[in-house]
Write a structure and sequence with these properties.
alpha+beta, 3-stranded antiparallel β-sheet
């Protein structure tokens, strides 16, 4: 949880300032006086700490988002280690929420990830899946990685894959990390960022 120390005149001022500094609502912050200084004008030294669970905040925001859209959903939240949170969502409107090529889903994940990381000192990996789209996409990418790697190992000719986001590139990096015959490298910038599978040099 994020913690900051401030020098203020009142606890109320500390709460308002902490909300602005931490970029979270005042209701999500605890402010404690840890010291004082000054003789004539008393200055309070306060410690402001986020008191809510970032994962729970993400869950509540997702629930509120779908409520506002009048879409009934089921949301399953899971923690994987200390720095990874996943949300699995199912609705009757899965195709709409996934969007073409998963773009709407990616935007939802980006939005939730940014909010959750505002609540944490350490970078959180936040994964949002709707209707099993990403799980299926992961299997497809792993199959593609294996098939392409076998071809590269056989022909000794590098293969350039189409542009992918960081999450999808990481799937391939991980899948082929222990292969001795090939290695992977990311090339390009922005939306053109892609992977190249190359034969290993011996």
């Amino acid at each position: 949880m994020k913690v900051i120390t401030l020098e203020v005149k009142t606890v109320e001022e500390g709460l308002k300032l902490a909300s602005k500094e931490l970029r979270v609502p005042e209701s999500h912050i605890d402010v404690t006086v840890v010291g004082k200084k000054g003789i004539v004008k008393k200055i309070l030294i306060v410690e402001a700490k986020i008191k809510v669970d970032p994962a729970e905040v993400g869950y509540e925001i997702l629930s509120e988002m779908f409520d506002n859209m009048n879409i009934e959903v089921s949301i399953e939240m899971r923690r994987r280690g200390e720095n990874e949170i996943s949300y699995t969502i199912n609705t009757s409107e899965n195709p709409i929420l996934i969007g073409k090529n998963g773009k709407t889903l990616e935007n939802i994940q980006f939005y939730i990830r940014n909010i959750i990381n505002a609540y944490s000192d350490e970078r959180q990996i936040v994964l949002v899946d709707i209707g099993g789209y990403k799980a299926n996409r992961r299997r497809q990418i792993e199959i593609l990685a294996t098939k392409t790697a076998k071809e590269v190992a056989k022909t000794k000719v590098a293969a350039k894959l189409k542009p992918m986001n960081a999450y999808e590139r990481r799937i391939i990096h991980t899948k082929l990390a222990e292969w001795r015959d090939v290695n992977t490298i990311s090339e390009g910038e922005g939306q053109d960022r892609h992977l190249v599978i190359k034969p290993s040099r011996r």
